[in-house]
Specification:
heterodimer, A: 445 residues, mainly beta, 33 strands, globular, B: 233 residues, alpha+beta, 21% helix
Chain lengths: 445, 233
């Protein structure tokens, strides 16, 4: 149990925003290396792994035991996975109108308390209500009612978790967002779309041939991906809601690595139609294609910066693969307009930029394959996220606070979410198949 | 007493704010909203809730606690959003691709049969496969015999066309390996062209690391997977 810091800093955490940083020596990160989050008058002192997490108790929701999907367990798991909270044991059952004995909850070490209920309405929908208490101040912070069809109970819980996270920290939660990933098993490949916790998945594509590199459109309505259904790599774009799909890149050789421009109108893809694998920009309205990179090497794995001004990509023009960037409006062929971004290590691939534009995640090979995180303001060197050695495809949550990546554990391919400093890592429960190629979707209305 | 129903303030940089609700508005049933100058909670319409002073109630429920500070109501930093109508969750339409000639059912897209349809690629045996060193796309001298044999086959049968499929071992990212497999396939195509093969009859494709011959995580398996296979089309 981490040593508790004083109540005042916990209370600041209650109102302020926390960036899951750590200065703990055990994490191997120097405190000065990472800029701390300063938002208005809220500032959180980081004292070590766990000590800056906000202790919250979630009591079982009255009535949820009657339902196919209880709400409180999903809520608890969401709060923990965010990295911002740690759970306090909460026995019994209460509801949103209960009057908690605040001293008891203080005694249990909680700073916040969530009560609620889930009631079936006459029309079959479920009315999920919660109440949030500030235990430190003994203050009722209000609550809400969320009415959903029974099939959407998990979503209601995710929604409430996001509301709680926003209310308590000022930071947006991502529990009601979705992820895409590919499973391989039983001779089939399946492209799944699931909740951010990996559960509640639906299958968008089943194929006897491999599927790789799913990429969400900025509005979350389409997925671009690479399918081998024609016996080679072809880029497809599919509507999530109605399954309509078409190929957007099927030239000679391999067509792969689709990535969307922030305005959703263009894709950068990797084509080998003119020789070595190079980057090309596709206009989805006109189907026009324009070559974007001009090296004699492998250029691939493009990704836009969130402001749309830069395209980051992988190139082995210097020998081994490294990450470069080029201005997104620069189609010129002459010279070396690309700036190199990674310099340490001989093999760096799979760049991903956080939606707030502050961080670059990528995979470094040095013996094993490790997810690395580098600040883009030049404020520090790259640091590893976690200690696994078989990492692939890092992808940021829309709130820029969590990473999703594929790795191996106990001989199986698994997916992992992690806070940026690696201090809170949660494997996603996807059973029965090897799972790879994760991509975190955007916020959607 | 004023009620604030504005949405959560948007984030300051890049990312868009979380939406108030996925679903269009219906009716609001807010339990409580704290607003500046408001000292009593709002009653829930259809749930009996005792009207009470929050500070007083807190004190009453914690008789053993230290003195409770008087309630200082403050503007809600992040006022609660209106509850919204909930539509059923966006469905994900499912598309199933079925190999041509397979049994009925599924939604075959009619895109054409997949070459080499089996998911577990059948080994084509020696004489049709060139193996490569780690990170390399160089056709080593010991595999020149494979290239020679296939070049002779092409010369002997004018209608024969070959697809060269490049592959990598399981280590590393999918995309970079796809590109490396493509380089391997093209290296073999160039070697065939040097022996006079017509490029129009040759196709270079890559499966990267997606179709391994061997599934182990050991050097022997890795070496078996670093290959280019020459298949008749």
């Amino acid at each position: 149990m981490p040593e508790m810091t004083d109540r005042r800093s916990f209370h600041r955490a209650l109102l302020g925003s926390a960036l899951g940083l750590t200065a703990g020596a055990g994490a191997g990160l120097g405190g000065a290396l990472w800029p701390s989050a300063v938002r208005a008058q809220y500032r959180v002192e980081i004292a070590g792994i766990g000590a800056n997490q906000l202790p919250v108790a979630v009591v079982a929701f009255r009535g949820e035991e009657q339902l196919a999907q209880p709400v409180a367990p999903v809520l608890r798991a969401d709060l923990v996975r965010s990295g911002v909270f740690r759970l306090i044991e909460a026995p019994g059952v209460m509801d949103e109108s209960s009057q908690p004995v605040i001293a008891d909850w203080r005694g249990r070490g909680a700073d916040a308390l969530v009560l609620g209920s889930a009631t079936r309405l006459a029309d079959g929908r479920i009315d999920v209500r919660y109440k949030l208490w500030d235990v430190v101040k003994g203050e009722d912070l209000g609550g809400q009612s969320v009415v959903v069809p029974a099939a959407d109970l998990r979503l209601a819980a995710h929604r409430i978790a996001d509301l709680l996270q926003k209310r308590l920290t000022g930071e947006a939660g991502v529990n009601a967002t979705r992820i895409a990933y590919v499973t391989k098993g039983g001779g089939r490949y399946q492209l799944h779309i699931a909740d951010a916790d990996g559960l509640g998945d639906q299958v968008g594509l089943i194929s006897p041939q491999p599927i790789i590199s799913p990429s969400w459109s900025p509005d979350g309505r389409r997925l671009a991906y690479v399918s081998f259904e024609r016996g080679k790599a072809v880029v497809m774009v599919q509507n999530v809601a109605d399954g309509q799909r078409r190929s957007v890149a099927a030239w000679r050789g391999s067509n792969s690595a689709p990535t969307w421009s922030p305005d959703g109108k263009r894709l950068v893809v990797t084509l080998s139609r003119d020789g070595p694998s190079q980057l090309y920009m596709l206009d989805l309205d006109t189907d026009g294609v324009r070559r974007f990179s001009f090296s004699n090497a492998i250029d691939t794995e493009a990704t836009f910066s969130p402001d749309g001004r830069w395209v980051y990509f992988v190139s082995d023009r210097s020998g081994g693969p490294q990450i470069y960037r080029k201005r997104a409006d620069d189609f010129s062929a002459e010279g070396a307009q690309a700036e190199r971004v990674t310099f340490s290590g001989s093999y760096n691939i799979s760049p991903s930029i956080s939606p707030d534009g502050r961080w670059l995640a990528y995979v470094n090979r040095n013996g094993g394959f490790r997810t690395m995180l580098m600040p883009l303001d030049g404020g520090g060197a790259a640091q590893p996220v976690g200690d696994s050695t078989d990492d692939e495809s890092p992808s940021f949550a829309p709130n820029s606070r969590l990473l999703l990546y594929a790795t191996r554990a106990k001989g199986r391919d698994v997916l992992m979410t992690s806070t940026l400093d690696g201090s809170v890592r949660t494997p996603l429960l996807i059973t029965g198949a090897d799972v790879r190629e994760p991509a975190w979707g955007p916020y959607t209305p | 007493m004023s009620h604030e129903h504005r949405l959560s303030p948007p984030r300051s940089s890049g990312a868009s704010a979380p939406r108030a609700g996925r679903w269009p508005l219906l009716a609001l049933t807010a339990l409580t909203v704290l607003a500046a100058g408001c000292s009593t909670p709002i009653k829930l319409d259809d749930t009996p809730v005792e009207s009470r002073d929050i500070g007083g109630a807190a004190a009453a429920s914690a008789p053993a606690s230290a003195a409770v500070a008087p309630v200082r109501t403050q503007p809600v930093e992040d006022p609660l959003v209106a509850t919204t109508r909930v539509l059923p969750q966006s469905r994900v339409a499912s598309v199933e691709l079925v190999p041509r000639g397979a049994g009925a059912g599924g939604a075959a897209t009619g895109e054409g049969p997949a070459a080499g349809t089996a998911v577990d690629a059948t080994p084509v045996g020696d004489g049709r496969t060139v193996f490569f060193d780690y990170d390399s796309d160089v056709v080593q001298p010991q595999y020149q015999g494979v290239v020679d044999a296939q070049a002779r086959r092409l010369a002997a049968a004018r209608s024969l066309r070959l697809t060269v499929e490049g592959h990598t071992d399981a280590r590393g990212g999918s995309e970079y390996n796809l590109a490396l497999g493509q380089k391997r396939a093209e290296a073999v195509v160039r070697a065939l062209q040097l022996l006079g093969a017509d490029p129009a009859r040759l196709d270079a494709v890559s499966y990267g690391k997606e179709r391994p011959l061997a599934n182990g995580q050991d050097e022997v398996s890795f070496a078996r997977n670093r290959r280019a296979e020459l298949r008749d089309r």
